[in-house]
Amino acid sequence: MSAVTEHTDHGTEAHDHADHGSHPTTLTFVKVAIILAVITALETSTYWWVEDAHTVAMITLFICMAIKFVMILLWFMHLKWDSKLFSLMFYIGVGLAIAVYIVALMTFHFFA
Amino acid sequence: MADIAVHEGAHAHEHDAHGAHATSTGLSNNKLAMWLFLGTECLLFGGLISTYMLYRGRLGNGPGPGQVFDIPLTSISSFILLMSSLTMVLAVNAAKEGDDRNTRVWLSATALLGALFVGGQVYEFTAFYQEGLGFTTSLFGSSFFTLTGFHGVHVSLGIIMLMALVGIITRSKVPGDKAEVVELIGLYWHFVDVVWVVIFTLVYLIPA
Question: Which site among A80, B12, B95, B146 is 20 to 30 Å from A112 CA-CA?
């Protein structure tokens, strides 16, 4: 997408920062979906892992969750190509939620 | 809206490539508002997830997660919702290319996959109830049904928006830029998927 410049009352130019770089193709999205499906299969398989592998399963699950979360945000929600301001809006919400609720859980001795 | 007036007679255009109005940031205010909304939704679901984490061990006289959860079924539901994100992004692509027919097809496919997910959730809730886990059975039951129920309501609202959009596109009555409208609903839909990624791991797969 081409950026459009406009002359404003202040004589400045407002740039559309959306859609940086080349736009992803359908094949890119299909590849991302396949990777997400494989990760989901790996996550599900941890349910049948032996109890001795509990710690490994927990670490695997958290890593898989984080990868899926970021992949959907970057590719499907276009944050990889969109303005950093959109990312900032969302990451502030995510960061605030994580901070607030970790403190809340600590208050109730959840991690003890 | 912090729209900035554009000089008449200048060669500037009122709308950018997406049809967004000229703004002080140069970005679409609608899209910015949607991202802000999704940021606030993180706080809503964060509260519900942490409440569940806190109460998942408070079983009272009712069954626990290990006795009621059907992981294979929930995995299939998760896969369906994940694939609905793919169909949604294909709908956005089609809308950006001005392909109304494919936009409608992919939006309908997304709504159908969403409906399958909600159907699976209704089946799951019914099975849990029959196994003795109701909303008021225990704190685990209350927090579980509140969290997953809220998510289900979000998916259902998404389905309504998708179907409404299909109808509006069919009648060619989309207000403003069509591609941006599809993209905004797509953002909401992907967010619902992202939330499920977290719920599926923290609620279903990580043992209490």
Answer: B146
